[in-house]
Amino acid sequence: MILIQNIDNSVEPGGIFALGNFDGIHLGHKEIIENVKKLAKENKSYSGVIVFEPHPRKFFMKDTNNFYLSDIKTKKYLLENLGLDSCIVLEFNEKLAKQNPEEFVEEIVFKKIKPSHLIVGYDFRFGNKRSGNSDDLLRLCSKYNISVSIVDKQLKDGTVLSSSIVRDLIQEGDFEKAELLLGHKWLIKGKVVEGDKRGREIGFPTANLNVDEIIQLKFGVYAVEVIFEGESYKGVSNYGFRPTFEGENILLETHLLDFSSDLYGKDIIVSFVQFLREERKFEGINSLKEQIRKDSEEALNILSK
Q1: CA dihedral for 62, 65, 67, 71, sign (positive or negative)
Q2: DSSP string covering 230-291
Q3: Eight-class DSSP state of 8
Q4: For residues 195 and 210, what is the distance between their CA atoms, to the nearest angstrom?
Q5: Domains of the chain, each with CATH number or no CATH
Q6: H/E run at residue 151
Q7: CB distance 84 to 51 below 8 Å
Q8: 287 pLDDT more than 80
Q9: Rounded Cα–Cα distance for residues 83 and 272 (Å)
Q10: What is the mean pLDDT of residues 215-232?
Q11: What is the rounded CA–CA span in Å between residue 164 and residue 175?
C-alpha cells in the first residue's frame, strides 16, 4: 500500500477512494472499503482510502487524550491488511477546518486528489462546523464529474456498526463483543520503548508501548496476543500506572510468555483477548512476582483454548 501524505504532487488521477475517519476500521468501514476495491477492479483503476489526521474531534478538543481506537500507525497497519493500493492522509489543520463544503470539494477533492469516484458512509460529515453531509458531497462532486456512492447504515446482530459503540465496549473490557463489530481483535501497533527495566529485574521482562493517544482502558491486566515480524506469541499485559512502583504515566507493559529476545525500538502488534483483573499495589516484590506468575498461567490457559 502506497502512503501519500503530500497531496500537492503525488496523487495519480482517477483513483477510487473511500473517504472518512475510519477509526478502528470496524465492519462498517470494511464494507465501504470492499466496495472501493470492487469498483476499482471493475473500472481497471486503483483503490484507496482518504483519512484525516488528527481526527477532527481530536483537533477541536486538543486536551482530549486517550481518544483513538486506532492511532495513525495502527490504522495504516489495518488498512494495509485489507489490500488497498493507497492511503492518503489529509492533515486536519486550521485551514482545512475552516473550509466550507464547496471549498473542500473544489480545492482538495477536485484539484489535489482528482478521483473518479468516492464512497462514503451514510453519516459522513465534512466542511466547516460539519455543515456538509453525504448528499452534499454527491451534489458538489457532480459538478466535476466525480461520482459518489453512499453506503447505508450497517448492522451486526442488530447493533449499529459505529466507532462510538466499539469505544464503549473496549472501555468496558468486552473484547469479545468488540471483535464481532470490528471483524478483528482490537489491537495496538506501536514501537517498543525503553522502560525502567524493573520487569527484567524481577524475571518478567516487558515490551512497553506509549499509549497516550489510545482510548483509555480499565487499569489492569489483560490476556493478549502479540505479533512480531509476522510471528504470533502469547502474552500478558498490564495497562496503567504501575502503582507498586509509583508510576506517573499510563503505559502498556507486555510480557511475552514464549519469547526472550530484545524488542527495544521494534514494532509489535498487541491484540487484546480478555480482561483478567484490576491493577493494584503490592506490598513487596515477592507478592508481585507471585501474582504475575498467576496472571501468566491464567493468560496462557485462555490463549490456548
Answers
A1: positive
A2: TEEEEEEEEEE--GGGT--S-EEEEEETT--S--TT-EEEEEEEEEEEE----SSHHHHHHH
A3: T
A4: 10
A5: 7-151 (3.40.50.620), 185-303 (2.40.30.30)
A6: strand 147-151
A7: no
A8: yes
A9: 23
A10: 96
A11: 14
Using CA atoms, how far apart are residues 268 and 239, in angstroms rounded to an integer?
Answer: 16
DSSP label at 229? T
pLDDT at 122: 94
Tell me which H or E stretch contains 170. helix 163-172
Separation of alpha carbons 284 and 299, rounded Å: 23
Region of 60 (left: φ > 0; alpha: ψ -120 to 50; beta: rest) is: alpha
Distances in whole angstroms, Cα of residue 242 to Cα of each of 83, 179, 189, 264, 274? 39, 27, 21, 20, 19
Q: Give me the chain's average pLDDT, please.
A: 92
Torsion of CA 277, 283, 284, 285, to 10 degrees: 10
Rg (CA), the chain: 21
The number of C-alpha atoms within 13 Å of 267 and in the hemisphere containing its C-beta is 9
Quote the cell numbers at residue 296: 501468566
Q: What secondary structure letter does DSSP report for 128?
A: G
